Description:
The structure holds two protein chains of two kinds.
Chain A: E1 2-6, H1 10-20, E2 27-32, H2 35-44, E3 49-53, H3 61-67, E4 73-78, H4 84-87, E5 93-98, H5 103-115, H6 124-129, E6 141-146, E7 149-154, E8 158-164, E9 167-172, E10 176-179, H7 183-189, E11 195-199, E12 202-205, E13 209-213, E14 216-219, E15 222-225, H8 231-237
Parallel strand pairs in A: 1-2, 1-3, 3-4, 4-5
Antiparallel strand pairs in A: 6-7, 8-9, 8-12, 9-10, 11-12, 13-14, 14-15
Chain B: H1 9-15, H2 19-45, H3 49-65, H4 69-83, H5 90-105
Helix pairs in contact in B: 2-3, 2-5, 3-4, 4-5
Amino acid sequence: MNCIIIDDEATARAIIGQLCSNFKNLDVVEEFPNAIQAIKYLNQNKVDLILLDIHMPDFTGFDFIATLKNPPKIILTTSDPQFAIQAFEYECIVDYLVKPIELARFEKAIQKAESVAAKPVKNVETVNASAGSVETSSGNDLYVNIDRRLIKIDIPSIYLVEAKGDYINVKTEEKNYTVHSTLKKIEDKLPSDLFLKVHRSFIINTKKIIDIEDNSVLIKKDVIPVSRANRPELMKRLNLL
Amino acid sequence: MIQETPNLNYIEKLSGGDLTFQEKLIGIIKTEFPEEKEIYLNNIESRNFKEASEIVHKLKHKISILGLEKSYEVAANFENSLLENRAEGKADFENILKSITNFLATL
C-alpha cells in the first residue's frame, strides 16, 4: 500500500514515518504539514491510505475528508480521543489512533486497513451501540457536540438534565454542559434504570437524589419539580422502608 | 506542583534501537519545541486564548512523547480552560515547559 502522512507537527510526521518503516508493504510516498498541500497532491496522484491528523489549524482532518470525492482508506492520528465517534461516521476511516502511538496498536490499524475492502456507512446511533471497539469508549459515555467538538461525558456522573428552549443543560459532578438538543433525544440515550424524567423539563439520575418532598426532589443543590403524572414511577424506583 | 521527569523511553522503544532515528527525532523536537513554546508565550501574553489552546494542543503531544503522563493531563485541562477563555492551570503548564526546556538542553 502506498500512503501519505498529513500532520502539521514535524515530530508527529517523523514518528508516523518511523512506525510505517516497520511494514514492508507500506510505502510512504509523501508527507504534508497541512491539508491544502495534500489536496493538491491527491488531485494528481492516487494513494491507498492516508494517515491523517484531525487537529490542524485552518483546515481540520474532517474538513479535508469532505473535499475528497473518492477518499482512500484513512487512519486518523490524533491527541483528541473525543472525536472517535464522529470519526466512525465516515466510511473511509478504518481506524483511530490516539497519540503517542505504540507500534503494536499501529500494526493493528495497518492490518485493518489491509483487510477492510468496503466498510458500510454507519451513523452515530450505530457507532454508539458498538463503541466498545473504540479505545476510549466504555459504553458508559455520552458524546455531546459543543462548538464542533465532541465532548465525552461519563453517564453515571450526570445528575440532572434540564430543558432550556432549544438547548439542554447537562449537569455532572464535574461540570455543566449546554448542548443544542432536546430532552427527548438525551432521554433515549440515557439508561432508563438510572435516569427518570420527572417533569417535562427535567431528567434526573435517581441514584443522586438526596431527598423527596411531595412534589419536588433535591439533587445536589437543585430542587426539581416532580409532575403529578411522573410521581408514581419515581416512587416505584425508590427502595422504600 | 507535578513531580515528573521527562524521559526518552517512548522514543527509544519506537526506534527499535535505531540510534540514527533517535537522534533525528530528538533534533526535530529540539527545533520544534522552542518554536511552539514561543508561539504559546506570545499568544498568552496577548491573551489570545484560542490561539494559545491550539499550540498547547501541539505541545501536549511532545509532553506525552517525553513520558510525562500526569503533565499531559495538566496540559489537556489547561487546553480546555483556554478554550473557555480562562487561563486556569497556566503556572503548572509553564512549569512543564520549563522542565522540558531543561531536559532538552541536556540532550
